[in-house]
Design goal:
With about 260 residues, the chain is mostly beta strands. It contains 2 helices and 19 strands. It folds into 2 domains: about 100 residues, Trypsin-like serine proteases (Thrombin, subunit H); about 100 residues, Beta Barrel (Thrombin, subunit H), CATH 2.40.10.10. About 5% of the residues lie in helices and about 40% in strands. The strands form 4 sheets. A 6-stranded antiparallel beta barrel has the order 11-14-15-19-18-17. Strands 5-6-7-10-9-8 form a 6-stranded antiparallel barrel. Strand 17 and strand 18 form a beta hairpin. The N and C termini lie far apart (about 45 Å).
Length: about 260
Amino acid sequence: MWLLLTFSFLLTSTAAQHGGKLLKGEECVPHSQPWQVALYERGRFNCGASLISPHWVLSAAHCWTGSMRVRLGEHNLRKRDGPEQVRAVSRVIPHPQYEVRSHRHDIMLLQLAQPASLTPQVHPVALPTHCPHSGEACVVSGWGLVSNNETRTTGRPKSQVSLPDTLHCANISIISDTSCDKDYPGHLMNTMVCAGAEGGGTDSCEGDSGGPLVCRGVLQGIVSWGDVPCDTTTKPGVYTKVCSYLEWIREVMERN
């Protein structure tokens, strides 16, 4: 059974409208991504994010909403198994130059009202000391839609799409800027990085944004945007390149 992990890319003025490319993936080993954060808006799952310190969470700017809460240590969103932590957000700081239409500077810091208690299931991800290189192996994770491909009585494949309760992971690789620029001519910026799996996407559906792209244990990307319609494209997903924002991240954290 193939499981497909989705990215989101569509935006509105107040919240992320979820959709995106589905990648072959599977349920993560529980709590193998201890930095994974679930952002909630008024009790509803909205986006993914990453814990980068006990006080700070990093996500995509287009995930901003007026009412946000953070859930840490999650695996199954419908089941409490002990390590979960819920935190209010005291301050939301999107990048001051974020542009909705171009997806430029799609990055946002959230300050927790109470610091996270660090445990084996809740732990920050390391920020990069260098930018990712082409071909580097990475993992993207999130609670986006999954699709189970089954066979119809006619012999043709049937896709059943549903929201998973559990965190899913997909193994993908960094795509070179040269290759990605051919897929998105005039749209790719040096603050973005592309990643994908061989063969590309297979469907289009709702999912989550803002989640982590982790390469060798380091946060190299934030799920940002991608091509539409995803059921006919083989183009990679586009991520905010975290290494381009290290100075901004550190300045914000030090000031607050």
